[in-house]
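User: I'm putting together a small comparison set for a docking exercise, and I want a reference complex before I start. The sequence is below, and the ligand is magnesium ion. Could you produce the 3D structure with the ligand included, as structure tokens?
Assistant: Of course. I'll restate your input first, then give the structure tokens for the complex.
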Amino acid sequence: MGQLIAKLMGIFGNQEHKVIILGLDNAGKTTILYQFLTNEAVHTCPTIGSNMEEIVVQKTHFLMWDIGGQEALRSSWNVYYANTEFIILVIDSSDRDRLLTTREELYKMLAHEALRDASVLIFANKQDVKDSMTTAEISQFLSLSAIKDHPWHIQGCCALTGEGLPARLQWMQSQASAK
Ligand code: G3D
Ligand code: MG
């Protein structure tokens, strides 16, 4: 019965794909989540714990968990890892000082057993800020080309205007429907 329901949900496109949005505090995670949802920048407060929203793209349902990124909360990110299909890693491209911390968090995450099958989408956010790092600089610093065991993609974006976001939702949609 369970299998039948799962099959029917697949046919009607109602299967839910779990997405976790991670990154250091102030990177723009919550702003991105609400851009996906409303196509507007909303006023955000630092996230304590998590926010969860459902985003539907061409009948593909994503359950997106936006998880607080403050240092004290990072050790509990793994509580959210089970059944994750997509990791969205958000980076504040103007925050050069903390890119090393992001790099460490990225590789810790990729090594985690529960995320073995997850695809990784990296948003180089805040591209509107003067002198922010380019996606090429960030890719190089994070050694993205060395990641062979997860599908990944990096995209420059500005969460305030939404620039760069819709195309990547499409990428996720096509990855999800290929699963
Ligand atoms: P977080 O959820 O990762 O902690 P938030 O980050 O979404 O709360 O955003 C942190 C701050 O960065 C917010 O500013 C938000 O408006 C700003 N921000 C998010 N995305 C962008 C962007 O693309 N460009 C610029 N310039 N700012 C952005 P405040 O002032 O409310 O703290
Ligand atoms: Mg937040």
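The CA atoms of residues 78 and 112 lie 8 Å apart. The radius of gyration is 16 Å.
User: Thanks, that's exactly what I needed.
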